TrEMBL record:
InterPro entries: LysR-type_TF (IPR050389), LysR_HTH_N (IPR000847), LysR_subst-bd (IPR005119), WH-like_DNA-bd_sf (IPR036388), WH_DNA-bd_sf (IPR036390). Belongs to the LysR transcriptional regulatory family. This is Transcriptional regulator, LysR family. Coiled coil: none annotated. It comes from Micromonospora eburnea. Keywords: DNA-binding, Transcription, Transcription regulation.
Length: 303
């Protein structure tokens, strides 16, 4: 991080808020609207920030202001600084779950929505009946930035998110199994590798968060004939019904499909590493009562 900032008289909290919002919105206009100030005021503040850090900070790409590497480095720390100050000023240490109407933002895969969300919702509403839980689809290409920008407070997934400013807390493990239509004419409970390779398959896109299955097939050189790729596991029952296609799923989701008579589970004829799902949040320099409560609630609901 640059050591250009000369003294506290060179900056104020308003400048930091402008920086954070420009980063999050990629727009001087949107920043001005959010802060109820004029666009020239935002431009003036950006010039002061650029002088302080001796860096452009944001470069225009079409109609967006894209952060420079120095701005990327500054953002997580400045955002946490803003949050910490806001918490102090709003007496966040007095957070009371039973009275709170705060919105917490969680990102889950489709398997997480169907398999984990009911347990999470029960745990949250038992202690904080007025809290709002905003659950969004997990997109791996943007999820780290969503966490850093505050668009997401927490993420639960099996794919490992390697970033030094993220806190990872393992929750549970599960295996992968094969799935097919209940009346598939050739696939039994324990098919051979030759039988597996003979059939055509439905793949599930990497954005689903379960990539180890595809990676393992590639490592072993297995001949998997993929006829279709779908974006999530939730579509498997409808897609596989009435076909002779095969696919895979985490064991928890597969067992739910089978118990409802939608699919049949079979053992894969090769080993796939056990999947470990974890909770990801942004590391905080200072404690936050409300975020600590939310993180603890998620862990207690799922472990």
């Amino acid at each position: 991080m640059p050591s250009i900032v000369r003294s506290v008289v060179d900056y104020d909290i308003g400048m930091i808020r402008v920086f954070v919002l420009v980063y999050e919105t990629a727009s001087a206009t949107a920043t001005a609207e959010r802060l109820f100030i004029s666009q020239p005021s935002v431009s003036y503040t950006l010039r002061r920030l650029r002088n302080l850090f001796n860096d452009p900070l944001f470069l225009r790409r079409g109609n967006r202001l894209e952060p420079t590497p120095i701005a990327e480095d500054l953002y997580p720390r400045l955002r946490q600084l803003i949050e910490s100050m806001d918490e102090v000023m709003s007496h966040a240490s007095r957070f009371r779950p039973e009275e709170s109407t705060r919105t917490f933002r969680l990102r889950l895969t489709d398997v997480g929505v169907t398999g984990l969300l009911p347990r999470i919702l029960h745990r949250i509403r038992t202690e904080a009946p007025h809290v709002v839980l905003d659950v969004g689809a997990l997109t791996f290409s943007t999820v780290v930035r969503e966490l850093r920008s505050g668009q997401a407070d927490a993420v639960i997934c099996a794919t490992r998110l390697d970033a030094p400013d993220l806190l990872r807390e393992p929750l549970f493990t599960q295996a992968y199994v094969g799935v097919c239509a209940p009346d598939h004419p050739r696939i039994g409970a324990t098919p051979t590798l030759a039988e597996f390779e003979f059939e055509q398959h439905v793949g599930v896109a990497g954005e689903s968060g379960h990539r180890s299955y595809d990676l393992r097939i590639g490592e072993l050189g297995i001949d998997r004939k993929v006829a279709l790729v779908i974006p999530s596991f939730s579509g498997l029952p409808a897609v596989l019904a009435g076909t002779e296609l095969l696919s895979f799923a985490p064991s928890s989701a597969a067992q739910r499909f089978e118990s409802n008579g939608l699919l049949r589970v079979f053992a894969l004829p090769f080993d796939v590493p056990i999947s470990e799902s974890a909770l990801y949040t942004v590391r905080r320099e200072l404690p936050s009562t409300e975020f600590d409560w939310f993180r603890r609630s998620l862990i207690e609901a799922l472990r």
